[in-house]
Amino acid sequence: MISASIFLGMPGPTSMIIIVVAILLLFGGKKIPELMRGLGSGIKEFKDASKEEEENEEKK
After folding, report:
1. What ranges in 1-60 are assigned the alpha helix state H?
2. What transmembrane ranges does the database entry give (predicted)?
3. Is this prediction's pTM over 0.90?
4. By residue range, what is the domain housing residue 34?
5. Which residues of 5-26 are buried (b: 16+ CB within 10 A; e: fewer)?
6. CA distance to 4, 5, 25, 37, 45, per residue, from 40 (Å)
């Protein structure tokens, strides 16, 4: 019962294809690598900051 409610909010494969096509139409093929690079660097900064926070907690 619980597992069924978890999958309720997840988009299906058809929805994912529509989202990808919409992103391609909005940004074009040349802008997508720049967007992904920015997203990747943002995720990396977030992980580094959380790791630094954990190290500060352990020192206390």
Report:
1. 2-7, 13-59
2. 6-27
3. no
4. 1-59
5. eeeeeeeeeeeeeeeeeeeeee
6. 31, 30, 22, 5, 9
Any idea what DSSP says for residue 12?
-
Q: In the chain, how many domains are there?
A: 1
21's tokens: 């096509």
User: One-letter amino acid identity for 18?
Assistant: I
Neighbouring C-alpha atoms within 13 Å toward the C-beta of 22: 6
Q: Which of 16, 45, 43, 17 lies closest to 35 in space, CA to CA?
A: 43
Q: What is the pLDDT of residue 10?
A: 74
Reported as a single tens digit per residue, the pLDDT across 23-58 is: 888 888 888 888 889 999 999 999 999 888 877 777
